[in-house]
Amino acid sequence: MPQKMAILWTFALLCALLEATLVPATLSPPAELVLGPEVIKEKLTQELEDHGATTILQQLPLLSAVRNKPARGFPLLGGLVNSFLNYVIWLKVTSANILQLQLQPLTDDQGLLIKIPLDMVAGFNTPLVKTIMEFHMETEVQALVLVETSLNGSNNLILSSCASSRGSLHISLLNKVSFLANSLADKVTNLLVPALPQMVKKKLCPVIEEAFKDMYADFLKMAKAPISLSPGLLNFDLLSSTITGSSIQMDLQATLLDSQAKVTKWFNDSVVAPALPTLNSTLFSLAIRQDVVSAVVAAILPPEELLVLLDFVLPDLAHELKSRIKVINKTASDKLGPTQIVKIVTRKLPQLSLSQDDAKLAQRILLEVFATNKDVRPFFTLGIEANLAAQFYAEGDWLVLNFNDISFDRIRLMISDIGLFNPEVLTSILTKILYSSLLPNENGKLRPGIPISISKNLGYKTALWSVTQGALVLTPASA
Fold first, then answer.
1. Pick from 317, 303, 234, 349: which is nearest to 441 by CA?
2. What is the CATH code of the structural domain delimited by 299-450?
3. Which of 267, 317, 318, 339 has its C-alpha lying 20 to 30 A from 477's C-alpha?
4. Per residue in 322-352, pLDDT tens?
């Protein structure tokens, strides 16, 4: 019995381990664009206006529609209503407005219900009354947006259905004149109740569908707009579109190209998911993953050599360096002439790390000190592992990165012609030299910035860049 129980426990453990290994990891896309409900409503409203939706409503053929809808029931009643309609010589929409759109997510986050309220006034004329009589008509169109999976496995958004129900239709007579006219108006109203929803579905829904397609295409165009670097290019492509609450989320693939338009790096999904901020209902956000931002910075700051004539450029630091070296080796210090050179070589590619409200660039530096500009061999060669404090901010449509501080993780003495010494004694002066020479050089290359115009394209005047764990995030600073 104990042996049997041991076998059962072993089997259960193996099943648990197998199940754990089969649980899919949460993947993080290279970039993610989230469009909030206010952006969706504003853009769709604008598209409806551009597609002439209100004009379509004003052109609804109300008179022919009601004449094609005879009263149901007894033939005699239908004949009476049709005879009444002979007295209506004019019936049309005189004004139409599309009111504030509403978004309602489906419970499984796989769909989004768009409610489009319509407000119309229709007038009709009859020889029985000298004045034009007017109806106030209120109804609502409901369009359902679903996630569609294409043959290549990517998700896209489509408008799957569109309709206006009788239940949302309210018709009221604005002016009452006489019993006969009011009775005729009632008959017209009774015929409009079934006819108007069908007209809206037939005439307006195709316009709504086209407006949604164009809105989604505009969103895709904004999301996939290439970002020009100096040098090179950062390209985005759509991985999938999903619906999260009342927002649209676009997961983006990224590729980095050099100045010859050749792909130098392609970014896959990552199992390290950035902790993105909670999206306010009126905002949008663009999150770019840490490794993508790091590669962009590395493309702008390739490895290079920087020669500094310390006495000419930074005389105070030249004097301080000479004093420090004098403590190590007086003879070497005396050889430092007015043409002494500090050679700074940035090695490999810098690595950017983003955490909550903090950004640092890890950079490996080779630093050599030459007594004069004629010397071939340096006094010493140091290997420095430095951290540059980084700040991201927006200037109009441009993303700007600036380094404002530098610190060392490690200093190693690699080669020395002046004897062995602890390089830590030079930490203070080396920090000042790099702060005064390396940082201005790299900030000068970064100063032009990176053009990212999505905030302006979405209708926001100013943008705000912030860092979070593993990602750089763009949000509008104000509407």
1. 303
2. 3.15.20.10
3. 267
4. 999 999 999 999 999 899 999 999 988 889 9
